[in-house]
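WARN no homologs supplied; continuing
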Amino acid sequence: MRINFTILISFFLFLSVSLSAQTAEQILPNVSKALSEQHWDEASNLFRLAVDKDLYRSEKFFQTEIAADCPARTEMIHQLGFYCKSSRNYEKAYVYYKELTRLKPNETIYLASCAELEVILGKENDAFDTYEKILSIDKNNLPANIFIGNYYYFNADKEKKQLDKEYKKINAPTRMQYANYRNALSSLVANNYEKAKTYLEKVISQFPSVEAKKTLGKIHAVEVESKR
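OK structure emitted
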């Protein structure tokens, strides 16, 4: 039994080295063979090796050989997306992760990668929607709470700066103008600042984030200002 076990380990090591030396063109027929035998995990693992070797050939194989109802399809899309993301090909990675979120709309791992790519690509509003989706599934998701808390804060801060700028343009504000300014500030505190506070406090409850604490301190300062 000991000798057989040693032989088995040696065989798998040899197989691993052998596959790593092959090109994508040599590996992909083995993917087809594994699929025909319904060895889905094996097919996925072989496809990952092919993707690492040659993204272009692997994509072509995926597009022409993988049926829409193939049980290995989702994992293969994930491998394509992960490779593109790791290679900083963010636009292409985003296409794959969007497809993953369509196929598996409640899978937070895929949603999180999609949201991260949306931030990288400057799609902040889309990222907000995706992170909200994540929180509807997992209300304690740390990255989602961090993003949404900061999203509300930055928007509130932007509105406040514009509000202050417009008010300072008035040389001698009337009581009505001053009251309108104070009401607008109070409304801002009660809405976006309060929402930012809620999410960032949840962050602090899970992780001692220095940045979140600083932002909460700024929100507190605005709250004090609005009550003067």
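The radius of gyration is 26 Å.
OK
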